[in-house]
Amino acid sequence: MDIEAWVWWLIGAAALGIPLVLTAMPEFGMMAVGAVAAAIGAGFGLGPVAQVLVFVVVSVALVSVVRPIAARHRAQRPQLATGTEALKGRQAVVLERVDAEGGRIKLAGEVWSARALDTERVYEPGHQVDVVEIDGATAIVM
Asked: Which residues cross the membrane (predicted)?
């Protein structure tokens, strides 16, 4: 029983899909696409050397183009801040005197415990303060 070259390339593509699923390494997926391209080339009658060249060129091209794009996307911060990250940089109103020991502010419609970033500063009720950071359930303000 003689199996044609394009079938072997498709078997190779499926075999490359297994480590892609097991390891979540996208490089295996790009090589699987290269194997599919080689199978298409074999189906059009390309010789063995040309098939291997198609596989290598497509695989290398995908890895060299897709990996930098994926790395750039992975390094980007999310555009929509949620949770305590969304509160950083917002303004709040002092409800009870805020100093290095603590106090209370109204932040995003809720009452929060707060602490002054600068240990020498004191903020009296009615003052507008900026939230610099959230430490647990305490807003650090300045």
From this structure: 6-22, 52-70
pLDDT at 78: 67
Query: How far, in Å, CA of 26 to CA of 49, rounded?
Result: 26
- Go through the chain and tell me how many residues it has: 142
In a 3-state reduction of DSSP, which class is residue 133?
A: strand
Same domain, yes or no: 29 and 66? yes
In angstroms, the Cα distances linking 130 to 89, 121, 140, 142 are 6, 13, 8, 5
CATH of the domain at 131: 2.40.50.140
Q: Do the beta carbons of residue 93 and residue 103 sit within 8 Å?
A: no
16/43 same-domain check: yes
- At residue 24, does pLDDT exceed 60? yes
110-116 and 91-96: which strand pairing?
Answer: unpaired
**In this structure, which amino acid lies at residue 72?**
R
State the pTM of this model. Answer: 0.53
Total tally of structural domains belonging to the chain? 2
